[in-house]
Write a structure and sequence with these properties.
This is Hemagglutinin. The protein has 6 domains: 131 residues, no CATH class; 106 residues; 106 residues, no CATH class; 97 residues, no CATH class; 95 residues; 45 residues, no CATH class. It has 762 residues and is α/β, with parallel strands linked by helices. It contains 26 helices and 46 strands. Helix 1 crosses helix 5, helix 3 crosses helix 4 and helix 7 packs across helix 8. The strands form 11 sheets. The protein has a 5-stranded mixed beta sheet. It has a 5-stranded mixed beta sheet with strand order 13-10-11-12-14. Strands 18-15-16-17-19 form a 5-stranded mixed beta sheet.
Length: 762
């Protein structure tokens, strides 16, 4: 039967009370043990437990002094305890000889026994505390010293008096742990295998399997053969339930509270005085700069508290990042406990690493193995937020959709990562295929994208264009803002590649608009040929065509990227040259910009704000009238129409006011008597000439015969036109002599006649 401590069963009530009264010494919050770190298979490492040089006698004494400030009167505290010790011979393979001395202090006994047997003085101190509370009690009874370590105190019977006494207890406990070590398979709990360890002396509480990782842990279970249940761990500094035991829990907890981690420190460590966390690997330490990265290193364990001296053993390397290297040279990117292999140095560099020690964290194979193996890392990553990014040259470029990824020549597929995995990479311009509508993930606003520019667009517009522009891509606000904002609103008016005729898109197809040259061209945006081809051609509108909407009564002229409604049927016929017009679907017609009115050719107009009167000449010119006489002479006698400033200002002013002479194509005329009379030599009639648009000329009455060489004014005077001068004919006889009756004369106004210089009498 193994020799065990009297931690439960026969001394159950005693031990329980001891744990409550003296075994629970609250640690500072910075050093307090965390039940989550408790590992029943690794209570303490062999290196720490079997370290006989862990503390000197002076260090033990200082430690004891720090635990009890003042001993109660009538009691001897451990810090003050002394006794004579006896000499013990060496026990081969276990303990060296012990040379007995008079009046040895407890600290000296603890230190020397630890040195002789190779048992940590720290472990002995914890054993004394968890068994009898001797380290912290200010009023320990003599009986506590008698069975100080609980040696030879089995759960089922009384303690063996042969081993009473403080020195006996300390020495025999140390020797017993060495016996466990010397014959590891002889005892009930064996390292390196699964052991069914009881939860309580009461067999009905059951057992659970534990893989014991080392000899020190096996020895503790042989000494006290119970493990804590979850209830005991849930209340680490108190009691659990009726099936809870506390001996090995208290050993681990007290050791951790007093001396730090009883197991090998986690790969993640910090000191109690500095919150900086380091990742330890081999001989290097790397600062873990933020909580997100720390959480992603969770497979390496919880953060352990260590002394500064422990940290100082490691060389400070670059801060930890997301890229790690195994001893084999394999490179990995890690995220959420998963490691993703990196196939080349190119992808390592793309993710802001490097294939040199400054560009990765070197981990041990054991550390790397703690991460779950995932697929190979690709250059495109998908995030839980739904975003997708292309990673290149330490930049992350958001991908609007799978088609954008394909058209950019990027291999299909992606690796799923957490949102924080690539947040440290600089944001680059997004990858968006031409003619894609993208939705802002943050604001839901829509933009049409072509090249590096974005154009605002409404949901209503897109809904009116069938589904050819759906589904939308999506980008974050930051990515969208990296595209150049264009003020032109996408309204379904596009040009292939930004040039050529404008295409007006509707839910039924498209109309090709050839009438969009000049400064007033349609507000269009560039588009791909494929997008345009997705809409079947329904017709073409040439420049100057007469058009109307299917449900509109107004006929308009299509030119300069806009429609200008005719102000009357005659105006339409005069400029159009016929009564033919094109009827457009309302969906097309309503998408065209509406311009000022198309005024009637050959009619007179003015505004209320300006007394000047103008003759409308063709589609875009107005001619100033300095007098109504030139217009009346040409037969333009209708009343003046008042229009808006905007309508009249849409016409450019002719270079000169309206004259009595008119040029229509290759022909010249003078205005007289409401008719345009042909002239063969403008020098004969130096009255000034206005060149008119053919549409204006077409509405004016023209005489068949050319103008004669005689003119007659309203006072009856007749003049002979000769070499650009007018020569008065002083009598009818003279008129007859000059051949007047054969050719006749042209009746003109006084203003007309005054424009011709006077010459000598004819």
């Amino acid at each position: 039967m193994s020799i065990r401590s009297r931690s439960l069963s026969g001394g159950l009530l005693f031990t329980l009370l001891l744990g409550l009264l003296v075994g629970i010494v609250p640690a500072t919050s910075a050093q307090a043990a965390d039940a989550r770190d408790f590992n029943p298979g690794n209570l303490i490492t062999d290196a720490q437990f079997f370290d006989g040089q862990a503390m000197s006698a002076a260090e033990v004494q200082s430690f004891l002094n720090g635990k009890v400030a003042k001993c109660q009167s009538g009691y001897t505290c451990l810090k003050d305890f002394t006794m004579n010790t006896v000499t013990r011979p060496a026990d081969a393979g276990k303990c060296a000889a012990y040379d007995g001395r008079a009046n040895e202090t407890a600290a000296q006994i603890i230190a020397r026994v630890g040195q002789a047997c190779g048992i940590s003085q720290k472990a002995i101190l914890v054993l004394l505390e968890k068994e009898q509370g001797l380290v912290t009690l200010s009023n320990p009874s003599a009986s506590r010293y008698t069975i100080a370590t609980g040696y030879a105190c089995p759960d089922t019977s009384a303690c063996d008096a042969k081993y009473f006494g403080f020195y006996n207890q300390v020495y025999m406990a140390a020797l017993q742990f060495k016996r466990y070590q010397a014959n590891p398979t002889y005892w009930g709990h064996i390292a390196g295998r699964v052991n069914n360890i009881r939860l309580h002396p009461n067999a009905s509480c059951g057992t659970t399997p534990v893989f014991i990782q080392n000899q020190a842990t096996a020895g503790l279970y042989n000494y006290t053969p119970y493990q804590p249940n979850q209830a005991a761990l849930n209340n680490l500094y108190g009691t659990g339930d009726s099936c809870s035991s506390y001996g090995n829990r208290n050993f681990w907890r007290m050791y951790t509270d007093w001396f730090g981690a009883s197991t090998d420190p986690s790969a993640l460590v910090r000191t109690t005085s500095n919150s900086t966390v380091y990742l330890i690997s081999d001989t290097r330490k790397h600062v873990v700069s933020d909580m997100t990265l720390l959480n992603n290193l969770a497979p390496l364990g919880n953060v352990s508290y260590v002394d500064q001296s422990y940290l100082d053993k490691f060389t400070t390397a670059q801060p930890a990042g997301r890229i790690m290297r195994a001893a084999s040279g394999a490179m990995f990117f890690f995220d959420n406990g998963v490691k993703f292999s990196m196939s080349s140095c190119v992808i390592v560099e793309d993710f802001a690493g490097a294939c040199n020690p400054a560009g990765y964290v070197q981990l041990t194979d054991d550390q790397v193995a703690k991460f779950t193996t995932g697929p190979a890392l690709t250059s495109v990553v998908g995030l839980s937020s739904g975003q997708r990014f292309y990673i290149k040259s330490s930049q992350r470029r958001e991908v609007a959709d799978a088609a954008s990824q394909s058209q950019a020549g990027i291999p299909a597929g992606f690796t799923m990562l957490s949102d924080s995995a690539i947040s440290g990479l600089a944001l680059g311009a997004p990858i968006v295929r031409d003619s894609l509508v993208v939705q802002n993930r943050n604001t839901s606003a829509l933009s049409y994208v072509y090249g590096s520019s974005r154009y605002p667009v409404s949901e209503a517009t897109l809904n009116s264009l069938k589904n050819n522009l759906k589904p939308y891509g999506s980008l974050s606000n930051d990515s969208i803002n990296m595209l150049t904002a264009n003020s032109t609103v996408f309204s379904g008016r596009v040009r292939v590649g930004g040039s050529g005729p404008t295409q007006l898109l509707t839910s039924d197809g498209r109309v090709e608009w050839a009438a969009d040259s000049g400064a007033g061209s349609l507000d269009s945006v560039p588009a791909t040929a494929q997008l345009v081809a997705d809409y079947p051609l329904q017709g073409t509108v040439p420049a100057g065509a007469a058009v109307k909407g299917a449900s509109s009564p107004v006929i308009s002229r299509a030119a300069d990227g806009q429609i200008r409604g005719y102000d009357g049927w005659s105006g339409f016929v005069r400029l159009n040259g016929s009564s033919q017009f094109v009827t457009l679907p309302d969906k097309v017609f309503t998408r065209i910009k509406t311009g000022p009115a198309q005024l009637t050719v050959g009619a007179l107009y003015r505004t209320a704000a300006d007394p000047n009167v103008y003759l409308i000449d063709g589609a875009g010119t107005k001619v100033l009238l300095n007098s109504f006489d030139p217009a009346a002479a040409a037969g333009i006698t209708q009343s003046v129409t008042f229009v808006s400033i905007a309508d009249l200002n849409a016409y450019k002013v002719a270079a000169a006011p309206l004259a009595y002479g008119y040029i229509c194509g290759a022909n010249s005329f003078v205005a007289a008597g409401g008719t345009l009379v042909p002239v063969t030599d403008r020098n004969q009639f130096p009255v000034g000439y206005t060149t008119l648009d053919p549409s204006t000329c077409a509405v004016l009455t023209k005489a068949k015969n050319p103008a004669p060489k005689f003119i007659r004014t309203g006072d009856g005077r007749i003049y002979l036109l000769d070499a650009g001068r007018k020569r008065a004919v002083d009598s009818m006889d003279r008129f007859n002599a000059l051949g007047g009756p054969a050719v006749g004369f042209l009746n003109v106004s006084f203003d007309f006649a005054r424009l011709i210089p006077d010459g000598p009498l004819a």
